Amino acid sequence: MHQQVLARLRENILLGRIEPGQALTIRGLAAELGVSAQPVREALRQLVAERALELMDNRRVRIPPMTIERFEDLIAARIVLEAEAAARAMPYVTESLIGRLEAEDAAVNTAVAERDYDRWIGANYAFHSMLYGAAGQSAFLPLIESLWLQVGPFLRRAIRTISGHYTVDRHNEALAALRRRDTMALRIAIEADIRDGIAHIGSTLIRSEALGAGTGADAVRGPSTSSGRAGVVSEAV
């Protein structure tokens, strides 16, 4: 039961169903999930240890609020770990894996067009985790998952502000690098995917809120280009 509760809470955090700063109670979560308090308590303890949640003075837990300093640290860590994880996966990449990655990328495209945030974030995470997991069990994977859990709630909030425009599809660049077995190009594509996506819109959103400028789409809209995916800054990863 503990693992089932933990999986549900991980999914809710990763997909951004819980807002940054939102407080959670054991009793409330137990009622929502239809379980006793004990597995919820154990799951929350683990998520606090992973820094996806933080313990408050009143013994409640919450999604940590996002500051520009914390956000930039998380993005820098993601770039380092994910570029390296992708490079280490290259020797294990098969045509079958590339086909599955293409399917996940197509799912991202569909979700973007339909503004389906659960599918958007979920398919995007599946694309990245499927690639990084090609090498099997790795010390990188739990670290990367922890970073995604810490960014997830803010990611959903950020992509809701994006208005329709075009930019380069970095997933396509990563797929092209995989087909060529070009490890350096893959590193560059993954880093650019993170920098052009959530790193750009997230830092802009945080700064605009700090200045009291609001969170409208105009605050985070980037320049249009003639190629790429409609309605999303990169994959907003």
TrEMBL record:
| InterPro entries referenced in this protein's UniProt entry, alphabetically | GntR_C (IPR011711), TF_FadR/GntR_C (IPR008920), Tscrpt_reg_HTH_GntR (IPR000524), WH-like_DNA-bd_sf (IPR036388), WH_DNA-bd_sf (IPR036390)
Q: Which PANTHER family match?
A: HTH-TYPE TRANSCRIPTIONAL REGULATOR MCBR, TRANSCRIPTIONAL REGULATOR, GNTR FAMILY
HTH gntR-type domain location is 1-66
What keywords are annotated for this sequence in UniProt?
DNA-binding, Transcription, Transcription regulation
The answer to whether keyword Transcription applies is yes
* Name by which UniProt lists this protein: GntR family transcriptional regulator
Which residue ranges does the record annotate as region Disordered?
216-237
Alphabetical list of Pfam families matching this protein: FCD, GntR
Q: Annotated Gene Ontology MF terms?
A: DNA binding; DNA-binding transcription factor activity
Question: Which PROSITE patterns has this protein been placed in?
Answer: HTH_GNTR (PS50949)
